[in-house]
Amino acid sequence: MDTVADGPQQDGGERPGTGEWLGVRPGLLTMRRLLLALWLGPVVATAAVLPALLGAPRWSLLGLLPAGIVCWAWWVLGRNWRSWRYLERADDLLIRRGILWRQLTVVPYGRMQLVEVTSGPLERRFGLSRLQLHTAAAATDAAIPGLDPAEAERLRDRLTELGEARSAGL
Question: How many domains is the chain partitioned into structurally?
């Protein structure tokens, strides 16, 4: 977890807000890596074994290409998981993510129209929930995947309460 203070970052950019950036649960990384293995594992096995079964063992070396892609994707998933952070401030919620294309989403509490918590079957298996924020502008909807269900519900209740309080003055 990152503790953030106002002021310049090492890369020269400004850090918004103060406080502690919170990350998502490790179960999100485990779930995504499991899906990677389930989808690409058979491709790697087929590319490595099928040529040998057909009498062309040298062609089995082509299985190294998909294996390399799986290794690279495994590493990228870890970096992507580490990039997900969120920070609650007095007037808004910040969501930070991305490796190459970093994205910082600022959701003012007064602009929120709907806050929902979802959890599919696989997410429930890993003890995860997803918080989805819908704002007045459809293009600025934001989500935080990989939350503990209790944390997602706490955030939903808090954000709904703050959203109602902030929009009441409009």
Answer: 2
